[in-house]
Specification:
With about 450 residues, the chain is of the alpha+beta class. It has 2 domains: about 160 residues, Creatine Amidinohydrolase, Chain A, domain 1 (3-Layer(aba) Sandwich), CATH 3.40.350.10; about 270 residues, Creatine Amidinohydrolase (Alpha-Beta Complex), CATH 3.90.230.10. Helices cover about 40% and strands about 15% of the residues. Strand 20 and strand 21 form a beta hairpin. The radius of gyration is 25 Å and the shape is globular. The two termini are about 20 Å apart. The structure holds glycine (GLY) and manganese (II) ion (2 copies). The site of one manganese (II) ion (MN) has 5 residues, from loops.
Amino acid sequence: MAISRAETARRRQRLLESLPENSLAIVPAAREQLRSRDTYFPFRQDSDFSYLSGFSEPEALLVLMPGRAQGESLLFCRERDAEKELWDGPRMGPEQAVENCGLCDAFPIGDLDDILPGLLEGRDYIYYTMGRFPQLDRRLQHYLSSIDSAPGSSGAPEMVSLDPLLHDLRLFKSAAEIRLMARAAEISAQAHSRAMAACKPGLWEYQLEAELLHTFMANGAREPAYPSIVGGGANALVMHYCSNRAQLKNGDLVLIDAGCEYRGYAADITRTFPVNGRFSGAQKAVYEIVLASQQAAIENIVAGNDWDHPHMASVKVITEGLKDLGLLRGSVDGLIESGAYRRFYMHRVGHWLGMDVHDVGDYKVYGRWRQLEVGMVMTVEPGIYIHSDEAKVPEKFRGIGIRIEDDVALLKGGAQVLSAAAPKTVADIEYLMRSGELVQEALL
Ligand code: GLY
Ligand code: MN
Ligand code: MN
């Protein structure tokens, strides 16, 4: 199960068809990133580049030229090098890359300065997104100013951002992509179940993180899609918490926001559960509101609804719930209009999900919320966060942070929750934590 060479070729074809005549698009590979001194982070290919090339090495660059008779897709990549390959493993080299990736032609990356300026010359537009690859930005600017100042030049091509065209393609997932995302979500749901079953007071947050990583890797997902959040008690209120170094206390909740990357596709799941396996009355009361708001949001993931619909559905349920608990006072409409609910629910209900965890694609088109369409995949992740210093809030609610996050694909038959295997009702969570049964099933 992976994205086929034919699918990658279709993606290039679609992009080529959307580019104007006499233009050229440039998509660079990711750069290797230093971790410390001479040690690098594990290499992760750039999503745009991977989407269009399927090529997994650094120091590479894809060039697309609509209508070019000698071939529309060219790759620049590293040459074979026996000495370097002995240390770092095999490199594909240009010839093999043409074969393996179904491209028209490939050249050594070292020849970029000799070949690329000639390809740019005489083009009307260069589609390239400035700002992400500063060295290449400078190099391209140098090429363009040389073209501009050459005797008899009719001027340099105009630079246009590639993002809007390319990211609109990536926003709509194919059947093969949905299958990979469903697998990423399934593995991640198993990981959450395993962490729930392993949880007990006195463990350290990173020990639950270890349970997650074990399930990811044991199932062929080598990396999390983003740093896992394991936040006990009030750490759940820190949106980007990931130090995961505190001890888990009896009576607290723990929030886990974690998902694996499987064959280039992300999952993004959050579950919040009691460290000791039993929700207190106050924890349960807040939890049920978040759960109902998530359900309301999911019900609004319908083709033709706009992107804001699910969010506003979650806002309404949360505002009503907070009012019922006595944490907000006033009319529900007034509390929504004034934004008073944001004291406890300060983020939006979700984001696009795909190769990147916060995936690409515009949320508004010409200033209006985008309509939901079949093929889009998004997270649904409402939350309530009650800070410990909320003096007017009854003490039993202070320090509670709850978020519930699932991954939802909008398919022809309607919204499908890809991450449904991770327990999320109070009864299911308490049952799993008491018996551990689901985890044993999941590990078979
Ligand atoms: N894990 C990042 C997010 O939920 O957006
Ligand atoms: Mn998340
Ligand atoms: Mn998310």
